[in-house]
Amino acid sequence: MSNKKGRVFSGARPTGRQHLGNYLGAIKNYVALQDEYNCVYCIVDVHALTTVETTQNLRQNTIEMALDWLAAGIRPEESIVFIQSHVPEVMELHTYLSMVTPLGKLTDLPTFKEKIRLHPNNVNYGLVGYPVLMSADILLYRASAVPVGVDQAPHIEFARETVRSFNFRYNCDVLVEPQMKITQVPKVIGIDGVQKMSKSLDNHIEIAATAEETQKRVMQMVTDPQRQRRSDPGNPDVCNVFSFHKIFSTPEEVEMVNTECRKAGIGCVDCKKMLAKNLNASLAPFRARRAELEKDTDAVWDVLMDGAKRARVIAEETMTDVRQAIGLP
Ligand code: SF4
């Protein structure tokens, strides 16, 4: 008998090999949540179709992401890990939910306006309904909680409102309002020292990169812009290298950098070398596990297939209740 608190759902687009921003912002939390909750983790490939122009890399990106998730510590024998399109019930629920969602509510969403701005030549019907599909993802598995950063809270509120609309329209209680599990998501800045770490900006460090590649990327990191010469004192408070030291270095090393940087006692090159060394040491067990998993990617596909099978059992139960509540013949 499981003594876990309930079911958590989270999904992420198949973006391929994951970077430190993905790891610190989501994957680490996914791993930790498994101790408290029954977790359902979904690679949302259908969501990706709303904005991608080619699906050429979709399969490869999916397996790369799954490899990172599993190597990082997601336990598929415990958690359900699967691909969204392998559970077609989500598309059916999406359709039903769309009937209780006013169009104006979707087009007024700031996220929709932002998407139009980013993809002005591809404003498709799926893009408008994106939050409805996202709600269907959560509601299909009757998740009791969804881990989100503060900025994503409106998405969960949207899902909660959708539950109320559906249950009211069909005079039922078959859909469950998910609770928000607000998570402290650290904003991980890229190696440019300015923008959020992202693959598209090429300011990222892949967690599965080799030690050499990692060191190369760390050495490219932008530091305190005021520190022009080795003899100039620096300010770690405005230096992204220092932010990473706080995560990957020992308290003694952090203290040393904090003190020595301010009096030019340590140069940026040595400071970065230390970070690269610590980062590589911290990621070494993950990389070793990933290398093992990579030897048999068929087994990783099997994990995803098995996850879909288990997800469909839950999905089918929900859909039986949903169809009945609607009164479908
Ligand atoms: Fe940043 Fe380290 Fe250089 Fe100080 S010594 S500016 S913390 S890289």
Structure description:
It is an enzyme of class 6 (ligase). It catalyses: tRNA(Trp) + L-tryptophan + ATP = L-tryptophyl-tRNA(Trp) + AMP + diphosphate + H(+). Keywords: Aminoacyl-tRNA synthetase, ATP-binding, Ligase, Nucleotide-binding, Protein biosynthesis. One of its GO terms (biological process) is tryptophanyl-tRNA aminoacylation. This is Tryptophan--tRNA ligase. The chain is 54% helix and 7% strand. The protein is mostly helical and 329 residues long. It is elongated and about 80 Å long. A three-stranded parallel beta sheet has the order 1-2-3. It folds into two domains: 7-188 and 296-326, HUPs (Rossmann fold), CATH 3.40.50.620; 211-290, Tyrosyl-Transfer RNA Synthetase, CATH 1.10.240. α9 links the parallel β4 and β5 (179-182). It has 14 helices and five strands. Bound molecules: iron/sulfur cluster. Iron/sulfur cluster is lined by residues 223-224, 227, 234, 236, 239, 241-242, 257, 261, 266, 268, 271-272.
Secondary structure elements and pairings:
Blueprint: E1 7-12, H1 20-33, E2 38-43, H2 45-49, H3 58-72, E3 80-83, H4 89-98, H5 103-107, H6 110-118, H7 125-128, H8 130-140, E4 145-148, H9 153-169, E5 179-182, H10 211-219, H11 240-248, H12 251-262, H13 268-294, H14 297-326
Parallel strand pairs: 1-2, 2-3, 4-5
Helix pairs in contact: 3-13, 4-8, 4-14, 8-9, 10-13, 11-13
GO biological process, one term: tryptophanyl-tRNA aminoacylation
EC number: 6.1.1.2
Family: Belongs to the class-I aminoacyl-tRNA synthetase family.
